[in-house]
Amino acid sequence: MRLYQIAATVLTVASLLGGCSSAPTYNPTVYPFDLNQERLAKANIKTVVIPHVNLGGPSRNYLEDVSPRIDGMVSSYLKENGYKVVAQREFKQHWNTAVRAFGDPVDPTTGRVNMNAYTQIMQSVRDQMKKRNVDAFVFTNLAEVETVFSSGVKHSARWDGVTRKPSLSGPGNGVSADFNWNQPVAGASLMITIFDMDLERVFLSRGGMDTTEAIDTRSSAGRYVRRRNILENETFVREGIELAFHPFIVMERYPGNKDD
């Protein structure tokens, strides 16, 4: 066999091996997305705005603190995929004006939402955003879900399409042998809900990002504590964003497809 033939064979085998190693691992926890193809085709979405408010009640305080950063990453992801994103401050300005007219839709003491006021406010904001040729609203809710780490050798938690290892908080790098791995741990997910300008839902899905709790190494009983830095791993956040938008924006390595 000639040298160039050998080289070509090696490259072919390497590419096949690379393809196998890069294939996404099937994860049955992917969120069952809802995409309204008929409304999506009608809306012809090209320009969007990301509201600064949740769809419904507020997130936990520690998640609200990081939401502007997550919104920024969502905006970048949309732009990467060809969408124009109108500045969030424009939505906020019209929202605040509508709140003064119809009242705050969220009770600050209970977190309950007055849906009548909420609907009136959104209709008012929609009318203003139409002037900017906005085609859709992309709501970004940060949600917290309960999951557990597996009790096997490789402790991992799976939810909303992701697999994560436990984090530690405190001195040392070990976990007690009798640690209860069956106790629930909190995982943060990004929920994406897209509404067209008729305020009809076009798309809904959710993608896991990272746990918000870590194992407290100072506790002899073994417990979880709130992590000091929430959602700081940008790779994990990016994965959650890609999962949450699929298939509105197709994720290249979507883990929800079983091997043929």
List the main descriptive attributes of the protein structure presented here.
single chain, 3-stranded mixed sheet, 6-stranded mixed sheet, 22% strand, alpha/beta, disordered N terminus, 260 residues
Shape descriptor reads globular
Level of helix content? Answer: 25-40%
Radius of gyration: 22 Å
β content, as a range? 15-25%
Q: Outline the biggest β-sheet.
A: 6 strands, mixed
Q: Detail the poorly predicted runs.
A: 1-21
Please give the order of strands in the largest beta sheet.
1-9-8-4-2-3
Q: N-to-C SSE series?
A: HEHEHHEHHEEEEEEEEH
Span between N and C termini?
35 Å
pLDDT averaged residue by residue: 89
The count of strands amounts to: 11
Number of helices: 7
Instruction: Supply the helix-strand structural class.
Output: alpha/beta
Describe the structure.
This protein starts with a helix and ends in a 15-residue tail after the last helix. The protein has 7 helices and 11 strands. A hairpin with a 7-residue loop joins strand 10 (213-216) and strand 11. 33% of the residues lie in helices and 22% in strands. It is globular, with a radius of gyration of 22 Å. It is α/β, with parallel strands linked by helices and 260 residues long. A 6-stranded mixed beta sheet has the order 1-9-8-4-2-3.
Secondary structure: elements and pairs:
Blueprint: H1 3-21, E1 34-35, H2 37-43, E2 47-49, H3 61-64, H4 67-80, E3 84-86, H5 88-102, H6 115-129, E4 136-147, E5 157-159, E6 162-164, E7 168-169, E8 185-196, E9 201-211, E10 213-216, E11 224-226, H7 234-245
Parallel strand pairs: 2-3, 2-4, 7-10
Antiparallel strand pairs: 1-9, 4-8, 5-6, 8-9, 10-11
Helix pairs in contact: 4-7, 5-6
